[in-house]
Design a protein that fits this description.
Helix content is 57%, strand content 13%. By secondary structure, it is an alpha/beta fold. The protein folds into two domains: 8-118, no CATH class; 182-338, 3-Layer(aba) Sandwich (Trna Endonuclease, Chain: A, domain 1). A hairpin with a 4-residue loop joins β3 (240-250) and β4 (255-261).
């Protein structure tokens, strides 16, 4: 290599190193600045909401508080713009009611934006607000993802699940989600797959193809941390080939997740089939450091006694229903019944 070529290579190496280091400094500074701005904004909106609540709640003011807020909004909009409309002030007041202490707001400001808060305070149920706030913060949901989770009634589907309701409610009351989730809260029931656009009657092949076409949305519906590995995973046992519909991996739980698709109600034979798949994965697919694989049987319906007798409400294999139609109204009725 000539001296000129060595000099060019040295220049490129120094330039690349400088570019990487300076870019990292800029990115970190921008992140800190954005976090600081978000924290200041949330503290401002919380302070405004708190002050208005103090000014109109209690005594004789409570009778005409709405009119006071309406007139105040008009004056603030005139001076500061649309960000202080009547609806915006109402959200700030709800924010202050939800988070009575500034320390709570300071913590939230490191994890959630005002746009997240707007979606959360619109919810009437206190436990539901805590549930979505905790998950959005822990799993770093975007505002769009949070909105989709709320629209799909994730909270209702989770607490009405046979085995995870108590855990979720307890976690929500502590403003956090369990660190060690495990199978009990890794899965829920039912899953809403209305985005697949399937007809009322469809085959397992159609279901699998539709899921693969919408794999990102399907994984999001399952929850945070799922990654797609393989379809129709071949497993050879005693010279005979078996095929698992979907093989996934859960990143935080560090385990393989076997998914079987059934376009019919749960059958006792499904348990034995899944058990074989899990034992094969444990023997041939599991890596050092992985947790034991778990299985999910997605079906159109399941009998309570069959689930109990087979132990599909606990342990390594779970059965869950999937729904291809919008059932939000029915899910809300289930929640109301629980309450």
């Amino acid at each position: 290599m000539s001296e000129g070529s060595r000099d060019d290579a040295m220049i490129r190496d120094v330039e690349e190193a400088l570019f990487g280091d300076v870019s990292e400094l800029i990115d970190k500074a921008r992140t800190r600045a954005a976090t600081a701005v978000n924290a200041e904004l949330l503290m401002l909106y919380w302070g405004v909401g708190k002050r208005i609540r103090e000014g109109i709640l209690g005594g004789e003011r409570a009778a005409y508080g709405r009119e006071i807020v309406r007139r105040l909004a008009g004056r603030l909009r005139e001076r500061y713009g649309r960000g202080y409309s009547h609806s915006a002030l109402t959200r700030m007041m709800k924010f202050a009611a939800w988070c009575p202490e500034s320390e709570i707001v300071a913590t939230l400001s490191q994890q959630l934006s005002w746009s997240h808060i707007v979606e959360i305070v619109a919810l009437e149920d206190a436990e539901e607000r805590e549930f979505y706030a905790a998950h959005a913060a822990r799993d770093r949901w975007s505002v769009r993802t949070l909105r989709e989770r709320i629209a799909s009634q994730l909270y209702v589907r989770t607490i009405t699940s046979d085995d995870s309701g108590d855990q979720v409610i307890a976690a929500a009351s502590e403003s956090q989600v369990p660190d060690d989730t495990g199978p009990s809260i890794l899965f829920r029931d039912p899953y809403v797959l209305d985005f697949l656009g399937l007809p009322g009657k469809h085959t397992e092949s159609q279901l699998e193809t539709a899921i693969l076409d919408e794999i990102q949305r399907f994984l999001l519906e399952l929850g945070v941390g799922f990654a797609f590995v393989e379809r129709q995973k071949r497993m050879t046992v005693d010279g005979r080939d078996f095929r698992l519909d979907l093989l996934l991996y859960h990143i935080t739980e560090r385990c393989y997740v076997a998914v079987e698709l059934k376009t019919r109600p749960l059958d006792p034979g499904d348990y034995g089939q899944m058990l074989l798949y899990l034992r094969w994965l444990d023997a041939h697919q599991r890596h050092p450091g992985d947790s034991a694989p778990v299985g999910l049987i997605l079906c159109t319906d399941k009998g309570a006694e069959q689930v109990r007798l087979l132990g599909l409400d606990s342990g390594e294999i779970r059965a869950a229903r999937y729904l291809t139609r919008d059932v939000r109204e029915k899910l809300q009725q289930q929640l109301d019944a629980i309450k």
